[in-house]
Design brief:
The protein has nine helices and eight strands. The chain is of the alpha+beta class. It has three domains: 97 residues, no CATH class; 162 residues, no CATH class; 94 residues, no CATH class. Strands 3-2-1-8-4-5-6-7 form an eight-stranded antiparallel β-sheet. Strand 1 and strand 2 form a beta hairpin. The radius of gyration is 24 Å and the shape is globular. The two termini are 38 Å apart.
């Protein structure tokens, strides 16, 4: 390894850490509908004070400050350090793996995957700025660097990227709709009458059954969704009902031939015997995220990311259930596993495919 190679690698690593620092801004602000440009300087979410440049050096500042704000001493989540380190490492590896033009295009993709992963882990959403913006960026990148689509011609690369993005969206849309048709409702029979509370909270509502708490909006992804509660007893803003089934839609409640607009209700309490909850196989942001993966990596990556992401998600979900308490409201975001599958393909896909073909005797 020459001195110039070492210096070049160090520069790429530092650049990746700096991009990771910006990604931390996006990860915090995008889900909260905050501008990533204003204020231009980072600020502490607790005390609101802007962070001085010397306290905002990628990787170094988190270690020097021991993971705490220099002004108020509030702990800074390890996620900030992890994002910068992961981005820096992936930048460096891709620079060593691929030709320079391809590597730079992959840097854009890596940034999108890292941001999508950590936002989805915390908020269970992937913003359109990342998914739809990523689709456009991927198609443009394929036109500029056609090698991304395994060709030297720009127009075919452009078409392949667009078609791969479309494949990613439609393929996952089919999985989503099939999953909704087959597994779109889940019945939970409780061991004993269990207290529940539906309480309005701003534009949403808090929904608590026993020790499990969630937001009401989390259950309704479609207008056709229904949530049923078989009750020993129920009180609807003080009006008592016994041995009834409450049928909730996203905006109304039906019980004993009466219908109530949820906007007019404040609190519903009672004892639940069983619930039937609507559920989705995944969020619609995942569809657009897989389209983004296709735009950057091609149609084979779409198939691989979907398969590998399902395997990764199943393994992590099983470990979570084995190590933790099993709860019926447990949510597992799929975006991070799609992203991990895409990164796996980016670095090892061709090799894994060749081994698979050799195993089958092709």
């Amino acid at each position: 390894m020459t001195a110039s190679t070492t210096v070049g690698g160090l520069f790429v690593f530092i650049l990746g850490a700096c991009i990771g620092s910006f990604l931390n801004v996006a990860i915090y602000r995008l889900p909260r509908d905050l501008s990533v440009n204003r204020p231009r300087r980072s600020f502490c979410p607790n005390c609101g004070k802007q962070i001085a440049w010397r306290h905002n050096l990628p990787l170094v500042s988190w270690l020097v400050l021991r993971g705490r704000c220099a002004e108020c001493g509030t702990p800074i989540p390890f996620r900030y350090f992890a994002v910068e380190l992961i981005t820096a490492v992936l930048f460096l590896i891709s620079w060593n793996f691929f030709p320079s033009q391809v590597a730079v295009a992959y840097w854009v993709f890596i940034g999108l995957v890292v941001a999508a992963t950590f936002i989805d882990l915390e908020h269970f959403i992937i913003p359109d700025e990342i998914t739809l913006g990523g689709v456009v960026a991927g198609i443009v990148a394929a036109f500029i660097v056609p090698q991304l689509m395994s060709t030297d011609a720009r127009l075919p690369a452009f078409v392949r990227a667009a078609l791969a993005a479309l494949l990613g969206y439609l393929l996952l849309w089919f999985v989503l709709e099939a999953g909704k048709l087959l597994f779109g409702r889940k019945r939970i029979t409780l061991d004993a009458p269990t207290p529940f509370i539906w309480r309005r909270s701003g534009d949403d509502a808090e929904f608590t059954v026993g020790a499990e708490r969630s937001l009401w909006s989390e259950y309704f992804g479609r207008e056709s969704d229904r949530l049923l509660i078989d009750c020993e007893d129920a009180s609807i803003d003080g009006r008592m009902h016994n041995k009834v089934t409450l049928e909730f839609h996203y905006d109304r409640l039906a019980v004993e031939n009466e219908t109530f607009a949820l906007d007019d209700l404040t609190e519903i309490t009672g004892s639940a015997l069983a619930l039937v909850i609507p559920r989705e196989a995944m969020g619609r942001g995942d569809l657009k995220f897989l389209a983004c993966i296709g735009a950057f990596l091609g149609w084979r990556a779409v198939l691989f990311a979907l398969f590998a992401g399902s395997v990764y998600g199943s393994v992590i979900g099983l470990i979570t259930l084995l190590l933790g308490k099993r709860v019926w409201s447990l949510k597992l975001p799929f975006g991070p596993y799609l992203g991990l599958g895409a990164i796996t393909w980016m670095f090892f896909g061709e090799g894994l495919l060749q081994r698979y073909q050799a195993l089958l005797g092709f």
